[in-house]
Design brief:
It is built from 10 helices and 7 strands. By secondary structure, the chain is an alpha/beta fold. Helix 5 (about 95-105) links the parallel strand 2 (about 85-90) and strand 3. Helix 7 packs antiparallel against helix 10.
């Protein structure tokens, strides 16, 4: 069973990889990009993911947003600039927290967005204190959605919404074990069936109002990750042979291979769900 410590270790150990391969300092994103007719670059695809989630949430100026698993805060920076929201981001990674806080200070957004080092399934925020909860590829770090669903219901105001982007499994039997290998190298706890996500959210009292499958649109990112893994394989192996490297940093390059091979075999898909609190 993966723990919060494992998740924090993964992001602490691999932040420099995202800075190198994902151009993190420029795009402020650790997620898949969504390609469409309007996107002309990888950076635009990454920003398009934020735009699509914001559109699905029906985001409005002045609303209060909780980014559950915020990474370095890129989505909150986007929402603060484009929608003038007030936001809080939760991350388990001390390195991500430091990165996000430094960026907020540099961009003079400290009054609009704050960041906390805490578990987004067990927060200290007061009941009904958020208009929107945003979880962009963070739910796959959870083995079970029960606590997250309950906390989402508790924190949302009546009429509040949550937008959740995640990877879901299409099969119970993975002949090559690509999904498990991907999970092991990316600090993930689960890739569940969509029905499992829906049932746990509905059991908490939330209503599913929209489901969007964007699998075909994330293929360019998956392919980019695969190619980066191939390019980084030999340097990684040589570096690991001559240096002491941590467990996630040592095998991180393999994740790009596993996710793409699994995707090509239709073992997983990418979906975005909107849920409402009535």
């Amino acid at each position: 069973m993966i723990s919060n410590t494992d998740i924090a270790d993964y992001y602490n150990q691999t932040l420099n990889h995202y800075q190198t391969w994902w151009k993190l300092d420029r795009v402020m994103a650790l997620h898949y990009g969504i390609s469409d007719a309007g996107t002309k670059s990888f950076a635009e695809e990454l920003m398009n993911t934020n735009r699509i989630l914001a559109d699905m949430a029906g985001l409005k100026a002045g609303e209060r947003v909780l980014d559950a698993g915020c990474g370095v805060g890129g989505s909150l920076f986007y929402m603060a600039r484009q929608y003038n929201i007030q936001g809080v981001g939760c991350t388990l990674s001390e390195k991500q927290l430091k990165y996000a806080k430094k960026k907020a200070k540099q961009d003079h957004l400290e009054q609009a967005i704050q960041f906390k080092n805490q578990d987004f399934c067990h927060t200290g925020f007061t009941d009904e204190s958020f208009d929107v909860i945003w979880a962009l590829e963070s739910l796959n770090h959870l083995a079970d959605l029960h606590d997250f669903a309950a906390e989402t219901f508790r924190l949302l105001k009546p009429g509040g919404r949550a937008v959740l982007a995640f990877y879901h499994s299409t099969t119970e039997f993975d002949t090559k074990a690509y999904l498990q290998k991907w999970m092991d190298t990316w600090g993930m706890a689960s890739i569940l069936f969509t029905e499992t996500y829906v049932n746990q959210l509905e059991n908490a009292g939330l209503k599913i109002t929209q489901i969007k499958d964007v699998t075909s649109a994330i293929f360019p990112t998956a392919r980019r990750m695969y190619r980066a893994s191939l390019l980084g394989a030999l340097p990684s192996v040589l570096y690991n042979a001559s240096h002491h490297t941590s467990r996630y940093a040592r095998n991180h390059f393999k994740a790009g291979l596993y996710q793409y091979k699994a995707l090509k075999r239709n073992l997983w898909r990418y979906k975005i769900i909107r849920v409402d609190k009535r």
